[in-house]
Amino acid sequence: MKLLQTTLMALAAALSMGAFAQEAAIRKNLAERLPNLPKIDEVSKTPMDGLYEIRVNHSEIFYTDAQGNFLIQGSLIDTQARADLTEQRLNKLTAIAFKDLPLKDSFTIVRGNGKRKMAVFEDPNCGYCKRFERDLTKVDNVTVHVFLYPILSADSNEKSRNIWCAKDKGAAFLDWMTKDVVPKTAQCDATAVARNVELGKKARITGTPTIIFADGSRVPGAIGADRIEKFLTEAKP
């Protein structure tokens, strides 16, 4: 038994060394051959024999062979499970736990008792966001954490700053989103808005609105009051 355990330990060590050498070779070859490739964060084997995942910029995924001779960009599909493995991996990498949201960079709108929680990333010039906000006025007993996320235009940045610097952020935001009352020009430290954009990039928030519920459920795009109610009811932090 002791001999078997020793043999297994030696085999595991050899496999570990082999995996380390393989990763080192991939990193070295890709760095030398593709100097413009961002620094590799992680190299890992995929379920496909001979194919390795390369992760850069926190959540960008490429694939390569064991020697880094080829680089592939695209989706890896498991045809048996009928699953997009790349999408699953990206969803895991960019997931945001509700408890980890930097709420200090948002402002809060409370309706009713505010017991139910949700967060939303919105661009002030997003038409879908305006429709979403009109629908959201029909939802009661909810606390909404609004993250200004100006990604559409320079004017989006200006409006976001004016809203963030308003005496009553929530009122200025809702007046604009639901009544088309242009927010008054205001100045203050609005670096929170810039941090929201950086957070959104890392989390692959590419459109607005993007909604995050208390259980971590993430919904891209405008949804109606009935679906908002459904997600709020089902969300368990």
The residue-averaged pLDDT reads 91
The number of helical elements comes to 7
State the helicity in percent bands.
40-55%
The computed structural class is alpha+beta
**Total beta strands:** 11
Radius of gyration: 23 Å
Short précis:
With 237 residues, the protein is an alpha+beta fold.
Describe this structure in words.
With 237 residues, this protein is α+β, with helices and mostly antiparallel strands. It folds into 2 domains: 2-94, Disulphide bond isomerase, DsbC/G, N-terminal (Nuclear Transport Factor 2, Chain: A, Roll); 98-234, Glutaredoxin. The chain has 7 helices and 11 strands. The chain has a 5-stranded mixed sheet. The chain has a 4-stranded antiparallel sheet with strand order 1-2-3-4, with helices on one face. Strand 1 and strand 2 form a beta hairpin. It is elongated and about 70 Å long. It starts with a helix and ends with a helix. The model has no long low-confidence stretch (mean pLDDT 91).
